[in-house]
Amino acid sequence: MSDRITIELSDVSKFYGEVLGVNRISMSIGPGITSLVGPNGAGKTTLLNLITGLIRPTQGHVTVDGVPLSDVESIFRLLGYCTQYDAFPRGLTGIELVRGVLTVHGLTIREAHDLACEALSTVGLLDAADTRIAAYSKGMRQRVKLAQAIAHRPRVLILDEPLNGLDPMARAEVIALFRSWAAEGRIVVVSSHILHEVDVISDSIILMNHGYVVAEGGIHDVRQEVEEHPYQVLVRCDRPALLASRVFALDHTVEARIHPDARGLLVATKDPTALYRLVNRLAADEGLVIEAVQPADDDVQSLYDYLIGDEGGRS
Predict the structure, then answer these.
(1) Which phi and psi (to 5°) does residue 20 adopt?
(2) Given CB 3.0 to 4.6 Å as the disulfide criterion, which of 90, 183, 197, 296 pairs with 232?
(3) What are all long-range contacts of 124-130, with beta carbons under 8 Å and residues at least 24 apart?
């Protein structure tokens, strides 16, 4: 095992009979926060279950830190998994749930108890450790699943929709935990369909649709690779109609429309540098008063819409 842990997928496909789960995925995931993004049915949970060894690929190979999925005990020690589903044994308290999982790792009752308390404290549930999970709120159930995943101090955390059900304060606290784990050199893989959250927390992203990976890399790296994707720029100014009349003279202008508040122009262009030069020239030569010039779409939502398309079939 190396100091820098990686997850490696080589030509991995999973079919459920004739139904495609994921198809021919090859990638390497290293330390940091990697967000797996896609709509329901995109293949996110299938991919996470393949990485954790809960299901086996129809073809291809998955290794975690060089360990194949067939080495179940080693994989179990390396990985912590927080599923999106609530499925708790009836009547258990939080401490009993987390401690019980730890005993599977061969720890003594005392060792398991201490690590369980540590994990519950980390997620802010130590005061409710002796409360039955049946009485937990949705947010508390989400956090006890996180405690269960981290209690054995795994180097890889696989988290399926981990922010669901959390209030804004708890959400911020959990995101801070993700960042601290990534800073320790762990792999944190987070699946989500809430794109603005992904934009905030991710070091890298994997965009999925219908079982395929359609893009991967850092958010800005992926954005730059999509050369045909027009950039959207919002120019706040005093005479947006004047600017609109001039931007269409630029070869790379795709669209321009006045902002609903009539105090700006939203421009879609394949050459933002040329647009910036035009704005500067109008300010200098014709007294156009510029309040702000800013990218309007340098985020995951823009990438996602462009690369995957909407329900209407745009691709």
Answers:
(1) -80, 130
(2) 296
(3) 124/170, 124/173, 125/94, 128/94, 129/93, 129/94, 129/95, 130/93, 130/94, 130/95
CA-based nearest residue to 55, from 69, 37, 36, 74: 69
Give the domain ranges of the chain.
7-224, 230-296
Mean pLDDT per 10-residue interval, the chain, length 315 residues: 84 92 95 89 92 95 95 92 87 94 85 96 95 93 94 95 82 90 95 75 89 84 66 90 92 90 90 88 93 76 66 39
Sign of CA dihedral 110, 116, 120, 125: negative
- Which one is the CATH code of 230-296: 3.30.70.100, 3.30.470.20, 3.40.50.700, 3.50.50.60? 3.30.70.100
Rounded to 10 deg, the angle between the 138-150 and 94-103 helix axes is: 20
Question: Long-range CB contacts (< 8 A, 24+ apart) of 48-55?
Answer: 48/81, 48/158, 48/160, 48/189, 48/191, 50/9, 50/12, 50/14, 50/22, 51/7, 51/9, 51/79, 51/158, 51/189, 52/79, 52/81, 52/158, 53/79, 54/81, 55/14
The answer to whether the beta carbons of residues 154 and 82 sit under 8 Å apart is: no
Q: Which CATH class is domain 7-224?
A: alpha beta
Query: Are 137 and 168 within 8 A, CB to CB?
Result: no
